[in-house]
Every structure is written in structure tokens, then in C-alpha cells.
Amino acid sequence: MYEGGYRGAAANGNGAPNFFPQQLLGLNNYSNQSQSFQHKFMPHNTNLPPHQQQNQHPPLGNNSSYPGQNKVASINVDDPSTMYWQHQVLLCQISRAENIPHFYARQFALNSRKTKNPYAEVKSVTLIDATKTIVTALEEREEQQRATQAAQTPSALMRNKKTEVEDDEEQRMMARTRGKQLWCHLDLSGQGLSSLLPRLFQYDFLESLYLNNNKLTSIPPIIGKLRGLRVLDLSHNRITEIPPELGMCFNLRYLYLFDNYIKKLPYEFRNLIELLFLGIEGNPIELNIANLILERGTKALIGQFRDMEPSYPEPKPRQWLLLEDDGEVIDPVANPEKYAEDHLNKERSDSFTLMSYNILCQHYATPKMYKYTPTWALDWNYRKLLLKEEIMRYNTDVICLQEVETQTFYEFWTQIMNEAGFQGYFFSKTRSKTMSELELKKVDGCATFIRRSKFALVLKQHLEYNTVCMGLDRYKKTKDLFNRFMNKDHVALITQLEHLESKEKILVVNTHLHWDPAFNDVKALQVGILLEELQNIIRKSSGGSDDYKNIAMIICGDFNSTKLSAVYQLFSTGVVHKHEDIEGRDYGRFTDDGFVHNFKLKSAYDHIASTFPFSNYTPTFTNEIDYVWYSTNTLKVKGLLGKADQEYFEHHIGIPNAHFPSDHIPLVTKFQIRSKASASGTKKPEFKPDLKAGSSRKT
Questions:
Q1: Is 216:237 a contact under the CB 8 Å cutoff?
Q2: What is the chain's mean pLDDT, rounded?
Q3: Is the bond into 656 cis (omega within 30 degrees of 0)?
Q4: Domain of residue 593, residue span
Q5: Annotation says 558 is catalytic
Q6: Of 558, 581, 626, 663, which is the active-site residue?
Q7: Are residues 567 and 601 in the same domain?
Q8: Are residues 325 and 286 in the same domain?
Q9: How does residue 403 score in pLDDT terms, banded at 50, 70 and 90?
Q10: pTM of the entire structure?
């Protein structure tokens, strides 16, 4: 075990690596593979005894061998002269030279000492250093090629949408342990190990694991728990098969399998979306795999696995769960008759169903963002049909969608939903106001559909959070407001509906908050503004009354906030003041006195919180961030759509994929209207449009 890690190759005064030729970078063709070439460019560890130095560099050839290892044969590929295969051969030879116990730990300690001594000789190169130099050169060339291609999506359309900051991932992974974990690399090379204890795989903080030069014949499936691994060296063992679970280690950058007995690679390698180099030389591997690597490299191999037709089973349908009046889940196995009764009486006069679903706008669903998704499954023409099928299958009375593209709403969803008996309402994000006619069609927003046989529209309004702040004097114009809040253009779509059978009025709010966790204060302010404006709307409509207990209200959407957030606390408790999300920020009275509202709200899915692990599922983030908030005085939850198939997701690192069209899953809730909420004698508010709040598009 050792602290720290490898941070790149040694450099000369100009910052360039000083021990790699152009050939290694793949910039020129190799003229030969002579001993002189090998002697000149293979790393020489001058710190070893002379008898070990002479064994460091076995000759290149089809039957290379070295002390303590079985004889291995090079793969008989179609064209061994390609750049990618030359990388394979060269890195394999470097790996074979690193055949002393604990090589990586020794080398790291040695280089650390040399770094402190400016007069020491140049640091020795390792397999990792060599690989990084090769990969860097390849990435620079790819970047140059990409720079010549025109962007398909205007940059303005991508504003405020999450992007993967790969450069910061190492810091993010180290921050997981809050500084408590002081080492994250483990070198067990050259120890004669023939098996591995399960305890090893409890170290889920590991970033590098070196098991090369041992006697391992297999790797246990539990290795899939090491999802933080970036480097894994299994070279020079006796491994015959790679477990499919290794595919769950999606952070792997470098995977070395040199000189084993591996014939096939598991289909689950499709999940290794960050893999930059896969070392396979010295294995009896299938030629189609080897030839693909020599022609197009490691990334192309992973891409081919990813784009293959899925061989895994479809997920099990999500379980519909009924709730008692006290909120307890009714066991479907012990009470099948209640579920049968619910199905027969689904059109009760005092109940309705609602869906909230972030459907992932096609302009955000890019191959760079969703590397793990098959290209054909990421295509909008595929996803929109899957979305249509899913939404129609659940057949709810109210459908609240987020990330709906403007053009898609009018040309796709409106026609489909109209034929199914729904009326649709839509409002796009604020940025559309400053765009051309062509560009604004690609801006996303919130869409709400209501079943015409169940509801009638009473009023429709919208809130543009930044516009509301600037237009009203009660919101203090602080530096944080201008620098952090005003450039976020999220909206809320408000519809007040009349339930035709019960004649009850229900306020339905559909919204989508900012995504970035670095701006949790912005989300809290967005919600604070939303709740305050809702209170003002209700107060005006009820003749100045501050009694909110008779208001039937649902606020749903993608809040991009976990249960530890200020947003969740504000909704669930009615107040948030001292919270780390808003600490040190200045939003006037919101931060001076705290955020406060007078509604009695609860998250519908809190009823099954212990068994509902996520609503958003990606490799780097899995959590519940979508909510359906409802007024507990006027509504009660009678049914919920349960969690997604847990066994299925144990083999997938993220969605969308072939079976899930979005990176979110829909929330579906059955509500029952509480009997005569106005029994207290308070006049129920008659809602009228507030023209200051704006209006939105309607079809």
C-alpha cells in the first residue's frame, strides 16, 4: 500500500516527455522492430542489480518469454504494423520488463525521492507513464480532427445543461472520503498469489490495483464493487476468463491483460466508457477483437460492444403499489383482492392519476454526454417512440413533462395526446425570447397534458424565475442575484384544473430547476420565489385570505435536489434558514430571515422512501431528485408506481438505454380528493388569471 499516485511522465525543461520517440506517439510509421529500437526506447531501471537489469528487456518476437513466466505468443493479427498495434506491442514489452515484486510501489517511492532531489537522474518510466503519453498524443490528434467539424447544436441551446467535467473527476473521487482516506493505490504485483480474498474488494476507494505477475487463474465477480478503479493491471497471470462484473468498473482508464489465456471479452465491457487503453497482447484472444483494436483502437472496441443488440433480458415491470389511508403500503401478495378492486374502480369520482417525467431533451442527449448509451438507443427517433409507449402505458389523467423541445411539443406530442383525449399546455425556457425563429424551436420547456374527460382548465399562468425577480421590488437586487441567479432561465407552468366529477379545483405546478450542485442556493431561491408567488396568486384569488389549508395543490417536476438539500427542507418543513446550501449567500430577506411558506406539503414518494432508491440513474449520479409534492389537507396518496427493477440495474451503469428512453424514470401517483375540504366554512378561492405572472402557449 502506498500513498499518492502517478501524475504523468517526467518532462524536460520545455515540459515535453524526454524518453518517448515519435514512433511511440504514433506520429511516424515504424521502420522495424529491431533490438536497437527496443534498446533505445524501452525504459531502463538503472536502480536494479546488474543481473536483474539484463532480464528487463526480452526480445520482441512471436515467442517472448521472461523469468518466472510461461512462454507466451503474440497474437497473429492481420496487420501488425498499424499504429494501434505497435502501441500494444511496445507497452506489452514494457510490462514484461516490470517483473519484480511490488514494482509500482518501488518505482513510485523512488521517483518521489528523485523529485525532492533536483540533481537526481531522470525518473524512470513506467507502464502507466508510457500509456498516458501515448493516449495524450492520440487525444490531441482526435481533438484536432473534431475542431474541423462544425457543431451540430448551437451553444446557446446547451446553456445551463449539465456537462461531464472529466478533468475534475479525480478530485471528485478523492473528495468522496472527505480527506479521511490517505491512500488509494494498492500494489500486489509479483507476490505469487493464486487467489484473492473477498476482503480486498471492500476497498471501494481504490483507484489503482496492481495484480500483475502472479499465478491467478480467475478474478472473482465481486471486483465489480471497485467502481472507483482507474487502473487495473492483471498482466502475466494464468487468467482464462474475465468476469462480466468487471464491466461495472466504468471509471477504468487503463486495463492491462497482457500475457494471460483469455479468449473472449464479456459483452459487459460496453460499460467501460472511460477506457483509454486495453492491453491484450499475449492472449489467445478472438481475432475479430484484436483486429478491431489494431485498426481503430480501444475506444472503437468499447463502442462496438456498446452498440451491439442487447443480449440481456428486459427489466421487470414496475410494481403498482396501493396505500392505506394512513399511508402504509398494501402488500400485493397478501391482498390481491384490493388490487383487483382498484383496477375495477380506477375511474372513481374522487380520484385521479398524475405522472411527472423528465423525458431528456434530444439536444442534451449527445454521445459525449451519454457515452454508455448505444448510439441507436440515443437517437431521438428511437427514444420518442419508447417515450410514447411508456407514457401511454401508464395512462394517467395528468401528465407533466420536463425537457420537452418546443418544436417536438407542437409537431409530435400535441397530435399524439390530442388523439388520446388530452389537452396540452406548454411554456419554454426564457432564452427563447432572444433567439431566432429557427433556434427557439429547439429550446426546451415544461409541458402539461390533462385528460379532457376528467378535467377542465380554469386558468393557466407561468413563472419565469429570473424575470419575476427583476420585475418586482420585493426581491432585493444583490450581487449574488445578478451573478448567480439571473443567468438561469428556468420556468414553472401553472394550471388550475377543475375535476369534472367532484367539481374540486386543483392547482398543478410543473417545473424544472437548475441542475448544478454548485448552485444549490439558486435552486433554493427558485423554489422560494415559486412558493411565494403561489401564495400571492391564491391570496388575490381568495379576496386577501391567508388560509391555504383548503387549497388542493400539486407541485411536481425535476428539482435536481436530494433530500439533504435546502429545496427539500423548504418544501417539507415550510422553512429553511441556516443551511449549507445558502450559507454565505445574499438574497436579501430570503437569506436574512430565511425562506418560509404556509402550505402543508409532502412528497408523495416519501410513503415508499425506504424502497425507492432513485429517479435519476447515471454512472456519476444516482439519486432521487424528482418529486411530486401535494397538499396534505386536501389530497391523499392512494397509489404509487414502485421502483425500477433492481436486478436489472445491477448490470447497467446508467440510462437511457435500449429499454429506458431517459436518464430519469417517471413518477406516477394516484390521488384521492379529501371529502369537502371546505367544511371549515372558509370560502374556497375562485382563481382568476394574474396577468403580471404572464401567460403561456396553449394548443
A1: yes
A2: 83
A3: yes
A4: 320-676+687-698
A5: yes
A6: 558
A7: yes
A8: no
A9: very high
A10: 0.83
